[in-house]
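User: I'm writing a tutorial on reading structure tokens. Could you give me a worked example: one chain, its sequence, then its tokens, then a sentence or two explaining what the tokens reveal?
Assistant: Sure. Here is the example chain.
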Amino acid sequence: MDLWLWSLEEADEHLDHFSKELSVDELRRADRFVKSSDRSMYIVGRAGLRRILADYIGLDAKAVEFEYGPHGKPYLQNGPGFNLSHSGGRAALAVCPYTHPGLDIELVRPIEDAVAKHHFSPAEYAELSCLQPSDWLQGFFRCWTRKEAVLKSLGHGLYMPLDSFDVTLSPGVPPRLTRIEDDNPLSWTLIHFEPAPGWIGALALRDTGGPVELRWRSGDPIVRACSRRSRK
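And here are its predicted structure tokens:
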């Protein structure tokens, strides 16, 4: 499985070039952002997604066509499974030929305890509450990214109750799913990673059939290639 990482911070002068590779629906969504910085990062993220996937399926970025599941998760009709996440000006993309991955990255930042109490299962919140204060924030984001990754792998989004499954979160404990309603937690593989200092990420995959080989890829050369072409 390939894990691509790239920066979403790109000069405004290049956005017109990136925009030409997006669909009409993507451009409409970009125009709905209130902040120009959010609009710019969305455009760079979607252009990077298209260019990377285009290499896998042998098409131009503009020609990549997405299908959407019942809860809005995009997929390729005849291509690898993939999932995109972004946070704090960085993007990550998991591409897997044999299953549909779930991916989440988060910039570690201050979070109120009430957020954990509201979103985590009772078992997860109890485990988080037992951590040392110095470990609490990292524990929160380990839990958050793992839960998001599971939801995104399933394609359910927030239609699936967050307390319907439990993940590990304590330091030194391997990432895993310990409980999930109407499913076998042993069918799942969770992977913890840190894409950069100050970020935490997680991957979730179901029915992998064995160990997962993770290959790190840099998407920045793809974005820079777009920028060079835009100056011609």
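What the tokens reveal: Residues 227-232 have pLDDT under 50 and may be disordered. Helices lie at 15-19, 24-31, 36-57, 113-119, 122-129, 133-154, 220-230.
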